Amino acid sequence: MFQGSMVALVTPMRADGAVDEDSLRKLVDFHVENGTDAIVAVGTTGESSTLDEREHCEVIRMVVEQVAGKLPVIAGTGANCTREAIALTRCAMEAGADACLLVTPYYNKPTQEGLYLHYKAIAEAVPIPQILYNVPGRTACDMLPETVERLSHISNIVGIKEATGNLDRGRRILELCGERLDLYSGDDATAMELILLGAKGNVSVTANVAPKQMHELCAAATAGDRETATAINDRLMPLHKKLFVEANPIPVKWALYEMGLIPPGIRLPLTFLSEPNRPVVREAMQAAGIL
């Protein structure tokens, strides 16, 4: 249903932490102009965990409005409370999002059966296309391929963002789910290899600062052009790695601030990028031709 470079969009904030609507709209235009294939609004990189429900829905609405149908918009609507996830997913559908991305419930550590029933309940409550999102490094919850296979039989569950960076895990999901479910990478450093294996694209942090290059990388990998994809990926690899030198989205928001695209705001408990790591990120940006 979706493919290519799908930016995990930051949520621009002013120094006081308030959402900056003007910068958000300009950032959307930046991605439309630079070839990004889809926008993921209010995911992990969009600081979903510190936006209240009203802000969450409003950011989705603004992104959909600004995109104006030029790109698909996928709204992050996951929560560790099933009722809250249903409410956010319904809000995203009413705002006009094309699909929703739902992270596994964090902190409360459900069983595999609990995960299955959680996603089944959301899919049955809200008919919008839904993409599962597995990132155990942040959630302390790992959705196993066998659970993904069970969920792939639900008609409006259309994909999974697999962010373990484990290519064997990706292979297993492809084997089990076949054409019923699209696989997306959630790890920039291994995205090229996963797409070459059969994934449909990458939900990318790097695309925030290098949208054109990430679009070209994903297009080449999708076409099976390993040589071109590798050349682009090698140049971007420092960014793939150094944008995680502190917790995402701290480094990428600083990089966008350096590029003059957003103000310096970020919400506690996250903080502005520390002084010692700024040259590290700047060097990666220079290596990628960003600065």
TrEMBL record:
Supply the enzyme class, top level. Answer: lyase
- Marked site (Part of a proton relay during catalysis) residue numbers: T44, Y107
Q: Catalysed reaction per UniProt?
A: L-aspartate 4-semialdehyde + pyruvate = (2S,4S)-4-hydroxy-2,3,4,5-tetrahydrodipicolinate + H2O + H(+)
Protein origin, superkingdom: Bacteria
A biological process term (GO) from this entry: diaminopimelate biosynthetic process
One Gene Ontology cellular component term attached to this UniProt record is: cytosol
EC number(s) recorded for this UniProt protein? 4.3.3.7
Q: Where is the active site?
A: Y133 (proton donor/acceptor), K161 (schiff-base intermediate with substrate)
Q: Where in the cell is it found?
A: Cytoplasm
Pathway in which this enzyme or protein is active = Amino-acid biosynthesis; L-lysine biosynthesis via DAP pathway; (S)-tetrahydrodipicolinate from L-aspartate: step 3/4
Provide the binding site for pyruvate. Answer: T45, V203
Answer yes or no on keyword Amino-acid biosynthesis: yes
**Gene Ontology terms for molecular function:** 4-hydroxy-tetrahydrodipicolinate synthase activity
Q: Which InterPro entries match?
A: Aldolase_TIM, DapA, DapA-like, Schiff_base-form_aldolases_AS, Schiff_base-form_aldolases_CS
Q: What are the UniProt keywords, alphabetically?
A: Amino-acid biosynthesis, Cytoplasm, Diaminopimelate biosynthesis, Lyase, Lysine biosynthesis, Schiff base
HAMAP family hit by this protein: DapA (MF_00418)
Q: Which family does it belong to?
A: Belongs to the DapA family.
The record's subunit annotation is: Homotetramer; dimer of dimers.
Job of this protein:
Catalyzes the condensation of (S)-aspartate-beta-semialdehyde [(S)-ASA] and pyruvate to 4-hydroxy-tetrahydrodipicolinate (HTPA).
Q: What is this protein's record name?
A: 4-hydroxy-tetrahydrodipicolinate synthase
Q: What is the lineage of its organism?
A: Bacteria, Pseudomonadati, Pseudomonadota, Gammaproteobacteria, Chromatiales
